[in-house]
Amino acid sequence: MKSQSLKPPQNQFQRHPLNWKQQSLAHKSQILPDKFLRTHARSKAQQGNYPEAIALLNQLITRHPKDAIDYNNRGLIYFQSGQLFPAIADYNTAIQLKPTLASAYNNRANCYAAYGQLTEALADYDKAIDLNPSYVRAWINRGITLRELGKYEQAVENFDIAEILGQLPANTYAERGRTYHLWGDWNLAIADYRRALELISDDNLRLRYQVETWLAQLIGS
């Protein structure tokens, strides 16, 4: 595992003098309400502008250094940008500040899974579900991790619970279908793949492509 060192963000205002308009804008960013900064950070992350999203959350963390949610959100953006080491550091801080924050355990588990540390990932998914039994993402993610460990029956049980909870049905059917596929129950796999394709939203092109690829592999085999 390669560790990633954190570098302090470069500050362009230290290299170039501010004119009066820049000074006004900089001052304005300091007085913007928290809700605006969080919304803007989310928007920038969705656009793939991770450095700016992180910079906005840095402002929030400076204002509220004891707010676990902001650390959790920044960790998520680090994770989305491929910076797993600082992501885990932020999730650790979020958990220290708020040990009951289920999403921080789920998000840290995703990092562990990305590193291949599946046992650690399962422990965090377990904790997230203990804290919030209706947390569908954690049930789905734990199912995926169990599948990667070859524990197909347990994985399906997790997806069954996610189906009962009724949220993220397209993801649930897609991942359960993949589990049946690898387990060798092709009829159930095809049925779940087709259910998933019926439910996937038009803007979720990545999931649609993934399911179509899995289905094509199965039908063509």
Automatic annotation (TrEMBL):
It comes from Gloeocapsopsis crepidinum LEGE 06123. TPR repeats lie at residues 68-101, 102-135, 170-203. SMART domains: TPR. PROSITE patterns: TPR (PS50005), TPR_REGION (PS50293). The keyword Iron-sulfur does not apply. It comes from the Bacteria. This is Tetratricopeptide repeat protein. The keyword Nucleotide-binding does not apply.
